[in-house]
């Protein structure tokens, strides 16, 4: 009988900063590595990530990709629309939380990567994530 597998080692707070324009939906071009799964056979799980712009944004897209351990197979898994915002003392910058229903399970040493369609800077942070035993 199979037994349940639970995240044992939290991996929250590390982040990627992306700023290089990349309109590709193929995984080609510059991508930031948001999260690297454990090298153990069990892998990792991500439940939520936060995306925060560091300044003014224009309408565009943030794209999330999963890459295998070798980085040879990169697949688009989600597109997040970015709205135009000029932050000020009364207007916060663009911010969104992405929830992966039932968790995003990454095989051992796989990576979650991100790219921005426009040359605008974003911090992408796993806020609920960890490694399996």
Short descriptors:
mainly beta, Jelly Rolls, 5-stranded antiparallel beta sheet, 4-stranded antiparallel beta sheet, globular
Strand composition percent: over 45%
Mean pLDDT: 92
Helix content: under 10%
- Return the structural class: mainly beta
Low-confidence stretches: none
**Topology pattern, helix = H, strand = E:** EEEEEEEEE
Q: What's the CATH architecture? A: Sandwich
User: If you compute it from the alpha carbons, what radius of gyration comes out, rounded to the nearest whole angstrom?
Assistant: 15 Å
**CATH class (first level) name:** Mainly Beta
Structure explained in plain terms:
The chain starts with 6 loop residues before the first strand and ends with a strand. The relative contact order is 0.41. The strands form two sheets. Strands 1, 2, 4, 7 and 9 form a five-stranded antiparallel sheet that branches. A hairpin with a 6-residue loop joins strand 5 and strand 6 (74-82). It has one domain: Jelly Rolls. It has strands at residues 7-10, 16-18, 32-36, 44-53, 60-67, 74-82, 95-106, 111-116, 122-132. It is mainly beta. The protein is 0% helix and 51% strand.
SSE diagram, text form:
Elements lengths: L6 E4 L5 E3 L13 E5 L7 E10 L6 E8 L6 E9 L12 E12 L4 E6 L5 E11 L1
Antiparallel strand pairs: 1-9, 2-9, 3-8, 4-7, 4-9, 5-6, 5-8
Summarize the structure.
The protein has 133 residues and is mainly beta. It has strands at 7-10, 16-18, 32-36, 44-53, 60-67, 74-82, 95-106, 111-116, 122-132.
């Amino acid at each position: 009988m199979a037994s349940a597998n639970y995240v044992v080692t939290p991996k929250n707070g590390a982040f990627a900063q992306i700023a290089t324009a990349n309109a590709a939906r193929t995984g080609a071009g510059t991508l930031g590595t948001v999260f690297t799964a454990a090298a153990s056979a069990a892998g990792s799980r991500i439940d939520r990530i936060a995306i925060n712009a560091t300044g003014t944004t224009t309408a565009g897209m943030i794209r999330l990709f999963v890459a295998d351990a070798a980085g040879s197979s990169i697949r688009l898994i989600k597109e997040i629309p970015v709205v135009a915002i000029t932050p000020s003392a009364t207007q916060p910058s663009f911010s969104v939380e992405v929830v992966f229903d039932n968790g995003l399970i990454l095989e051992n040493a796989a990576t979650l990567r991100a790219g921005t369609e426009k040359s605008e800077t974003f911090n992408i942070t796993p806020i609920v994530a960890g490694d399996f035993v």
